[in-house]
Amino acid sequence: MTMSDNPDAIPILNGRRLLLGVCGSIAAYKAADLASKLTQAGAQVDVLLTEAATRFVSPLTFQSVTGRRAWTDADLWGPEAHILHVELGRGADLLVIAPATATTLARLAHGRADNLLALTALAVRCPLLLAPAMDAGMFEHAATQENLRTLQGRGATIAGPGEGRMASGLVGRGRMLDPVELVGHIRLTLGAGGPLRGRSVVVTAGGTQEPLDPVRVLANRSSGKQGYALAQAALDRGAAVTLISGPTGLTTPQGARRIDVETASALQQATLAEAGKADVLIMAAAVADFRPATVSGDKIKRGSGGLTLKLEPTEDILRAVGEAKRKGGRPSVVVGFAAESRDLIANAGAKRIAKGVSLMVANDITAPGAGFGVDTNRVTLIGADGAPQNLPLLSKAAVAEVVLDRVVDLLSKVS
Ligand code: CTP
């Protein structure tokens, strides 16, 4: 299946060959969801179950969600046995073991090859990602900790476990991470060697809130979705990402360092401090242009009659970044956004020059399916050279992919 006929495809996962090892833990049922999510994103997922895993969940479950044969120890003695582990590992991009039990961690740490999964883990040369799941006491045990350290020392990535309620009814650290979190870890591992490896990218996202009194704020309709998608696309290309975020209910993309801000002035402070150290700034935040001239310490009473607010302008953060860049040279690439309700190309083009940005992502906020709150966006990219690039109505994730490809290209030209 190609990207064009799979609307759920995620480029960093699409067409990748993943091996998913499943061990005997109650969390094995969550591995079926993980296999399903990875398959939907376009990955080719080969599942290997240990004997104990088959007691919790059937190979048929995995076959049904991946559309591919799932392998068990019974296959070790079948006709393909002599090459099975080598064949499975050939060309694999990543071996994920989720859930990884204490027994399997011990097997791997000691290089034992006494089941199909352990055998394959020795045969493959791709990165290894382990998602432990076990009782908290077992996880904390010195033997398990030592095995994890050994595996980490050899380059394995350990994802989790998280805190929470375990099958025993006890609460502690031993829960396998949720499939969505594991997909984030998988993206991070697969993207590590990408074109933005060694680059730092700062993304601002969401809207700002300007306090009026202890309970009220002046805000805007920004959901933060486009900015978060841009942060994820930068992570998928191997960048170190700092996400400066206004208030949103969104989950931080795995691997991003997040700084929370509320007001335009806090956003400015954080952005100037971070952008001065970064290679790229993507200014997707919807910054308030005005704030109340005075903030009431007490709740403003309804009183009788109306209320007139006096507003003062906030700082133009992009302009300030542009000035700092002229002095210090950083960040090398600045991407701005332009929300326009008329004369999109002319207004956004003028804004690009006035704010000194490398690439402007312009959107017509009156266009259907574009802008605030929705999952789609229709934008035009305006750079210093070439004609504006009109993109069709796309998911915000797809817009982020195109923007980050342009960033990679711009970076290659400046350094
Ligand atoms: N921006 C900024 N600081 C502000 C306001 C906006 O850095 N105080 C940034 C936004 O994050 C965006 C770009 O400037 O990347 C353009 O924002 P937009 O709201 O389209 O433009 P404004 O500068 O606010 O101009 P206008 O409202 O007059 O269109």
% residues in beta strands: 15-25%
Poorly predicted regions: none
The structural domain count equals 2
Largest sheet: 8 strands, mixed
Overall average pLDDT:
94
Would you state the CATH class of the largest domain? Alpha Beta
* Fourth CATH level, the homologous superfamily of the largest domain: CoaB-like
What spatial order of strands do you see in the largest sheet?
A: 12-11-8-13-16-17-19-20
Q: Could you give the distance between the termini?
A: 37 Å
Number of helical regions = 14
Structural class: alpha/beta
* Hetero compounds: cytidine-5'-triphosphate
Overall CATH architecture of the largest domain = 3-Layer(aba) Sandwich
**What fold name goes in the CATH topology slot of the largest domain?**
Rossmann fold
Q: What share of the residues lie within helices?
A: 25-40%
Characterize the overall form: elongated
Q: Count the beta strands.
A: 21
Gyration radius, to the nearest Å?
25 Å
Topology:
Elements: E1 17-22, H1 28-40, E2 44-49, H2 51-56, H3 59-66, H4 81-89, E3 94-100, H5 102-109, H6 116-123, E4 128-132, H7 136-140, H8 142-153, E5 157-158, E6 162-165, E7 171-175, H9 179-191, E8 200-205, E9 210-211, E10 217-218, H10 225-236, E11 240-245, E12 257-260, H11 264-275, E13 280-283, E14 290-292, E15 311-313, H12 317-328, E16 333-340, H13 344-355, E17 359-364, E18 376-377, E19 379-383, E20 389-390, E21 394-395, H14 396-414
Parallel strand pairs: 1-2, 1-3, 3-4, 4-5, 8-11, 8-13, 11-12, 13-16, 16-17
Antiparallel strand pairs: 6-7, 9-10, 14-15, 17-19, 18-21, 19-20
Helix pairs in contact: 1-3, 1-9, 4-6, 5-8, 10-14, 11-12
This protein binds cytidine-5'-triphosphate.
